[in-house]
Structure formats: structure tokens, C-alpha cells
Design brief:
By secondary structure, the protein is mainly alpha-helical. The protein has six helices and no strands.
């Protein structure tokens, strides 16, 4: 399992629990089988791009947050070039989903 998959799994669990949803509830909202979320969270299955988008909509988060490393959340990047670059990237991604 690579780092991005591990980050995805950790973030999926974190945001699902933050939303107060069980694996079965999230699966129901995504219109998928009950065990699919559990298999994704165990690293057995990998979600499709469409499922990632559906999950992020249900969890009310940007899809990129499902892949974000914990280090990104800990960084204080405001008022830096990196922060400005991230804002530009976010704008491009948001325009794609509109």
C-alpha cells in the first residue's frame, strides 16, 4: 500500500466519523454495497474517481482533502508563495467541478 492510499484511508475514516456516519450509512448514501466502504478503509478495494467525488460530496469536503497528508494540515503556510499557489490550484479544481 502506498502513502497516498494510506492518507486516503486515514482521511476517509476521519471525515466519515466527523460527519457521524457509520461505514454502512456512508455506503447507503453513496448507493454502493455495505461492505465496500469497509473494504476501502481496509485497503482491500480502491474507489473509482466517481465514488471519490460522491464520498466528498456526502462528507461536505473537497475531494483533495481525502488525499492530503497530515503534514499539510500542520503547516502554517498562510501569507507565503506556497499558500498562494494552493489557492490558485483550488480555484482551478473548483472551476472544474462547477
Amino acid at each position: 500500500m502506498n502513502k497516498y492510499q494510506k492518507d486516503f484511508i486515514e482521511n476517509l475514516k476521519k471525515y466519515r466519523k466527523k460527519k457521524g456516519l457509520s461505514q454502512a450509512q456512508l455506503a447507503e448514501f453513496c448507493n454502493i454495497s455495505t461492505g465496500t466502504i469497509g473494504n476501502i478503509e481496509c485497503g482491500i478495494a480502491k474507489p473509482s474517481f466517481d465514488l471519490i467525488l460522491t464520498i466528498s460530496e456526502i462528507l461536505d469536503i473537497h475531494p483533495a482533502l481525502l488525499f492530503a497528508s497530515e503534514q499539510i494540515f500542520l503547516m502554517n503556510i498562510t501569507n507565503t508563495d506556497a499558500y498562494e499557489s494552493l489557492l490558485k490550484i483550488e480555484a482551478i479544481i473548483n472551476s472544474y467541478f462547477k
